[in-house]
Amino acid sequence: MRFSATLSMAMASFSASALAMPAEPAVRQDAVALPAKLVPESIANATALGVDVWGPIPADATTGDGYYKAEPGTPGWAWIRAQVDLAAYEKELQARGLSVPEGVEKRQATNIQLNFFTGDWCTGSAWHFPNLGYGVKAVPAENVYIYSVGFSGRTLRANEYLTLRRGDFNGDRCAEWHGTINGPTEPNLCWQIEATTCFRMNQSVN
């Protein structure tokens, strides 16, 4: 009887342990635990300049009609370039149980943001359109061609697409369609494109 009672208690103890829900990993506040090689270069460069990549764009960026512009080597440019890589960086932090600033999830549900550059691979002069709605055309005031583009805030959804257009600088810069970036897209991508003077955000109609 004593053996039976002891065995029953042991089995009950084992069952309780086996069925117990594992404790959720505590969110660590120290992001230093993320290996340096996993921190995108753009974010490392911005941080070295004292730029808060989750904060507002630095004041040195100039403003235009619905956009910000910045030149290479400035805090504003570093902030814009970092936005292209920020979603993938946040995903890596969350996968490792590291904290991300409050409001990240809320921000990811907002309108998509567009960042485009005059150079290849998201280099050169940069523009940031923070609120690109459907049917809205993104056109810089300067007479420039854009050769690379990246999204931020969130990625393109399956029913969204961005049309690439160009036209005469002295006329309709959105006159001619020459390409499309279709959703869904992945974060941390810099799209190489042909010379473009105008972008338009669209939603597919099912």
Structural write-up:
The chain has helices spanning 2-19, 41-48, 75-95, 104-108; strands spanning 62-63, 68-70, 113-117, 126-129, 137-138, 146-152, 160-166, 176-182, 191-196, 198-203. With 206 residues, it is of the alpha+beta class. The chain has one domain (40-203). The strands form two sheets. A six-stranded antiparallel β-sheet has the order 1-2-4-3-6-9, with helices on one face. The protein has a four-stranded antiparallel β-sheet with strand order 5-10-7-8, with no helix packed on it. Residues 1-20 form the signal peptide.
Descriptive keywords:
206 residues, alpha+beta, six-stranded antiparallel beta sheet, globular, disordered N terminus, signal
- What is the H/E string? HHEEHHEEEEEEEE
Give the mean pLDDT. Answer: 81
Helix content: 25-40%
Q: Indicate the low-confidence ranges by residue numbers.
A: 1-32
Radius of gyration in whole Å, from Cα? 24 Å
Cα distance spanning the termini: 71 Å
Based on helices, strands and strand pairing, what is the structural class? alpha+beta
User: How many alpha or pi helices?
Assistant: 4
Q: Strand fraction band? A: 15-25%
Number of domains: 1
Lateral arrangement of strands in the main beta sheet: 1-2-4-3-6-9
Largest sheet features: 6 strands, antiparallel
Report the strand count. 10
Characterize the overall form. globular
Keywords: Signal
Summarize the structure.
The chain is built from four helices and ten strands; from the N terminus they run ααββααββββββββ. It has 206 residues and is α+β, with helices and mostly antiparallel strands.
